[in-house]
Amino acid sequence: MRMSNIGSSLIRAMLVLVVAAGAGLFATMASAADGTISLTVYKAGFIVGGSGGDGILTFEGKKYPVTIGGVSLGATIGVSKAELIGEVKNIKQPSDIEGVYSAVKAGIAVAGGAKVAELKNSKGVVMNVKGKEVGLELALDLSGMEIKLKK
After folding, report:
1. Are 103 and 119 in contact (CB under 8 A)?
2. CB-based contact 38:22 (threshold 8 Å)
3. Alpha-carbon dihedral of residues 7, 9, 15, 17, nearest 10 degrees?
4. 22 and 48 share a domain?
5. 89 and 27 share a domain?
6. Is 129 in the same domain as 142?
7. Is the domain of 83 the same as that of 21?
8. DSSP for the chain?
9. pLDDT, tens only, 106-125
């Protein structure tokens, strides 16, 4: 009788592990990226700054060229070029990438440092990008960046 209790406990423990592993896999799949993006962003300014650039959205195996624009106010001093790559989440169709992005999380880059940012538009599309920035710019984020599909 004691062996059957040990066997039952072992089976229950294995079931718990299988359920936990399945839940972890489901959570990983739920947060998987819908696409990828590569961006080249140029920024320049003194108090009022401007930015522009281009990039490529890869979604469902196809590549979509995008343009970048935007204006920032405040502590913008200097010039920089950022080459960023990352994941795009919550995108259902290519046009969802369009919009003005605000920074959810951002990093600072000085003279070639790494830049990391999490950006979100009004459609709920989230971009997690990272890369290098060359130049010196004191703006802390990429807020106000507008992305449009090239026509």
Report:
1. yes
2. no
3. -120
4. no
5. no
6. yes
7. no
8. -HHHHHHHHHHHHHHHHHHHHHHHHHHHHHT--SEEEEEEEEEEEEEEEEEEEEEEEEETTEEEEEEEEEEEEEEEEEEEEEEEEEEEES-SSGGGG-EEEEEEEE---BSS-EEEEEEE-TT--EEEEEEEEEEEE-----TTEEEEE--
9. 554 444 455 578 889 999 99
Assigned token pair, 127: 């971009």
| Residue 8 shares a structural domain with residue 65 | no
Say whether both 18 and 49 belong to one domain.
no
Greatest Cα pair distance, the chain, in angstroms, is 81
Number of structural domains (the chain) is: 2
Query: Can you give the pTM of this predicted structure?
Result: 0.66
Rounded average pLDDT over 79-104? 90
Same domain, yes or no: 95 and 54: yes
Average pLDDT over residues 95-100: 95
